[in-house]
């Protein structure tokens, strides 16, 4: 959404010196490590180490954007009935946003078929459907009303409002390309932690913000933050988070053997891939 509206909003905020605090921890901000469009920059929070775009977006602006303005092929174009039937036949495998690879990672990290998964940010439900086909029981949340309705009505997905995700109700709290969009990363992680049963797995797939990827693909990295992605997760942020939760982080292509061997201690695997996976296990009490 490099729309004039977005840039105008950013310009106004820059002039007013608004929107420079970290959207996750509320910290005072941090040094700019990249710039774009004259009025926006990308910073590393001094407090929580999150990479975030300034000026930041308020929760209201975010909500409005996802209800009306958000367009990105696959995730927002709703298939016709005929298209849906064809996609179902191939288990949505040809979609660029297919969850089949995520399901392999969930299994490698110990998620078992039969377990309950919250699909947080399910779009129109294809991934929830793939999880069900793999034997998981799924509850799904989607901020966009038309997409949630499609998931519920066309694919029979049990969709819920965010407020109705029950504490200690799931074995896996999964999100595919969501954490880079949410108003507060810390709140989303806390929500996942609450929703998980003891021993449950928080797992998020997201564009990789790491400097290792920036070194390998500077242009792609520069393009990956902005209006649609107000923040990126990387190894530095993950390591800082590991003070409180023992994360494992890896990038695509995922090293399945290393994931299977994870003993629950903080673990950073090679960081050069374009997609990042971070996961932690809720402690057993
Ligand atoms: Zn912060």
Task: Give a description of the structure.
The protein is α/β, with parallel strands linked by helices and 285 residues long. It has one domain (4-281): Vaccinia Virus protein VP39 (Rossmann fold, 3-Layer(aba) Sandwich), CATH 3.40.50. The chain has 11 helices and 11 strands. It has a 7-stranded mixed beta sheet, with helices on both faces. A hairpin with a 3-residue loop joins strand 1 (32-36) and strand 2. It is globular and about 50 Å long. The mean pLDDT is 91. Bound molecules: zinc ion. Zinc ion (ZN) binds next to loops. The site of zinc ion has 8 residues, from loops.
Biggest β-sheet strands, sense, barrel? 7 strands, mixed
What overall geometry do the principal axes of the alpha carbons give?
A: globular
Q: Measured on Cα atoms, how large is the radius of gyration?
A: 18 Å
Weakly predicted, low-confidence segments: none
Structural class: alpha/beta
CATH topology: Rossmann fold
| CATH class descriptor | Alpha Beta
- The average pLDDT is 91
Give me the CATH architecture, please.
Answer: 3-Layer(aba) Sandwich
Strands of the biggest beta sheet: in what spatial order? Answer: 5-4-6-7-11-9-10
């Amino acid at each position: 959404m490099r729309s004039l509206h977005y840039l105008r909003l950013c310009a106004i905020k820059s002039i007013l010196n608004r929107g420079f605090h970290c959207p996750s921890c509320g910290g005072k901000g941090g040094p700019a490590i990249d710039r774009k469009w004259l009025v926006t920059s990308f910073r590393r929070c001094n407090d929580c180490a999150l990479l975030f775009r300034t000026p930041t977006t308020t929760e209201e602006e975010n909500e409005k954007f996802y209800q009306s303005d958000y367009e990105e092929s696959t995730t927002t174009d709703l298939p016709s009935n005929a298209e849906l039937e064809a996609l179902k036949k191939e288990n949505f495998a040809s979609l660029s946003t297919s969850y089949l690879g995520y399901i392999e990672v969930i299994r490698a990290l110990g998620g078992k078929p039969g377990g309950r998964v919250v699909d947080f940010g399910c779009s129109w439900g294809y991934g929830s459907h793939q999880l069900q086909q793999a034997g998981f029981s799924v509850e799904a949340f989607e901020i966009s009303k038309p997409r949630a309705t499609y998931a519920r009505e066309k694919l029979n997905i049990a969709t819920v409002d965010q407020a109705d995700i029950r504490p200690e109700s799931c074995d896996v709290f999964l999100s595919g390309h969501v954490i880079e969009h949410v108003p507060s990363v810390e709140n989303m992680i806390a929500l996942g932690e609450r929703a998980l049963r003891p021993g449950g797995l928080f797992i998020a797939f997201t564009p990789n913000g790491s400097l290792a990827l920036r070194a390998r693909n500077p242009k792609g990295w520069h393009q990956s933050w902005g209006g649609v992605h107000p923040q990126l997760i990387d190894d530095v942020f993950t390591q800082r988070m590991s003070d409180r939760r023992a994360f494992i982080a890896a990038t695509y292509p995922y090293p399945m053997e290393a994931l299977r061997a994870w003993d629950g201690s903080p673990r950073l695997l090679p960081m050069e891939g374009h997609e990042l996976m971070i996961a932690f296990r809720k402690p057993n009490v």
